[in-house]
Specification:
This protein is 9% helix and 33% strand. By secondary structure, it is mainly beta. The protein has one domain. The chain has a 5-stranded antiparallel sheet with strand order 4-3-2-1-5, with no helix packed on it. A hairpin with a 2-residue loop joins β2 and β3.
Length: 89
Amino acid sequence: MTKFKVGDRVRIRAWEDMAKEFGIAAEGYIKLKEAFTLRMLPLCGRCATVADTLNSYILLTKLDGDTADAEPFFLTEDMLEPADVREKD
């Protein structure tokens, strides 16, 4: 069970914030349950909508700045923070 619900708007946490909390591995990724890699750095600070929750994974859609047909993607709760905006149905 995650603290986020379907329809919640979330923000992908800042790299520096996650690095401070979890540390950085010698290979350069943030040491979370699932690695947050340098390739994911452009996601930091962007907002998305929770489409579903699956165990410890959160399916995100409607990433700010993406086209309407962009592929959904999964992150984990520790990579996210509330965006203080709820998606309107």
